[in-house]
Amino acid sequence: MGLMENNKAQAKNMQEYIECRKSDNNAISLKGRINSFNAPMAEKALNDLCRETQDVILDCEELEYTASSGLRIFLAMSKKHRMTLVNVQPAVYEVLELSGLTSIMDVHKAFRTVSLEGCEVIGEGANGIVYRLDPETVIKVFRQKDALLDIERERNLARTALILGIPTAIAYDTVRVPDGRYGAVYEMLASKSYAKLLKAKEKTVDEIADMSVQLLRIIHAAEAQPDVLPSMKQIALGRVEEIRPYLSTGECERLKSFIDSLADSRHLLHGDFHIKNVHWNNGESILLDMFTLCTGDPLFELAGVYYTYRSFADLDPDNAVGFLGITPQEAFGLCDQIIEKYYADRSEQPAAAYDGIRLIAYCRLLRFTLKASHYDSQFREKQIRHCQKMISVYLDRIYGTQQEDS
Questions:
Q1: Is 355 exposed, middle or buried (0-12, 13-18, 19+ CB in 10 A)?
Q2: pLDDT of residue 138
Q3: Can you point out the beta strands (E) in 6-127?
């Protein structure tokens, strides 16, 4: 083949090496390379595919390269459509970033996929499960499949906490797992959750209680700037509205009054503090799940401890084993010691504080029960009645017995 024929064949191949097609999720998939030879064909194909839609998602997982001609196509399309580029490979992302297009359109990098096969579960929180990937790294896999915004939010919250002196880890990478969910990767050398330490008898209940209280006091001593973090008081008042149909008018008003009586504090609260999302890493306690970080009165935090360690097990003691991985006796003892030791040498008395802690805990449990889809109807109704009874008991202990409105 002569030089001229070879150049023509090369040009033909380059022209054909781009494919635009609609995928099953209505995104437009790009495959191949965009260059000066095939740019006009690519532009026409893209315009034809997105003529009837305002929101355009370009899946760039198989786009290997784009020249400046491709950038001009994206820019022109962004003036007519709301553009989102997803699964952008590193080489293409670098070109988009250098050109400034990442600042004027929504561009998401491709994420490497990691397998969880054979990985040990070392922690668990409300929003995800923590696995050990290898001796140096762990991954928190979020429960929701569309969790990229949640991962970014948690990363920002972790930065806020770290700056305020809270021992926490910040994710250095975002990955996908085979079932399509996303995970945040952390460097955690030889870390073990408090639950693992307790189960392996490397620490006693008394020692874990001491460690927990020490960490809680560090958290609660930090103070955030106004409006940086959500207020737990406002969250709790919102929960009252969610459970209102299951309480009397008088109970709702007294419950709101009690919550309003708690301090409007800007001191930090973790919001989901328990032994599965606190890790012991080279002699230091590390919080790994910062998604629920907020501000408020420490009583809310201790109510969360009671909610997780005790109230969940009222009707089913095996909940302590199922979720926390410890015996009910260990869970109850740990809860009682954390609250008692937290209030030690302070003006507040545990006995007095306990009523408020339990009240808030059973409000949380009632809300959880109403939303839980895994309970059978018989157990669900039984637990609703139990929560209603306990809320009434602790309201009466705080305010005295009152005649209730129906």
A1: middle
A2: 86
A3: 18-22, 28-34, 55-66, 82-88, 106-109, 120-124
Helix, strand, coil abundance in the chain, percent, nearest 5: 50, 20, 30
Distances (CA, A) of 193 to 166, 199, 276, 338, 376: 17, 10, 6, 17, 31
Residue 217 in contact with residue 225, Cβ under 8 Å?
Answer: no
Are 53 and 22 within 8 A, CB to CB? no
List pLDDT tens digits, range 20-43.
888 665 688 899 999 988 999 999
DSSP state of 50: T
Alpha helices in 310-349 (DSSP H): 318-319, 328-343
The pLDDT value given to residue 11: 45
Which residue shows structure tokens 């409006």? 227
Q: What mean pLDDT comes out for the span 176-185?
A: 87
Residue 207 pairs with which residues in a beta bridge? Answer: none
The whole-number average pLDDT for the span 81-110 is: 89
pLDDT at residue 227, rounded to an integer = 85
Query: Using one digit for the tens of pLDDT, what is the confidence trace for 311-323?
Result: 988 998 887 777 8
Task: Give the list of residues 6+ apart from residue 122 with CB closer than 8 angstroms, or none.
Answer: 130, 131, 132, 138, 191, 192, 193, 196, 279
Q: What angle do CA 50, 51, 55 make, to 5 degrees?
A: 50
With contact defined as beta carbons under 8 Å apart, do 288 and 169 qualify?
A: yes
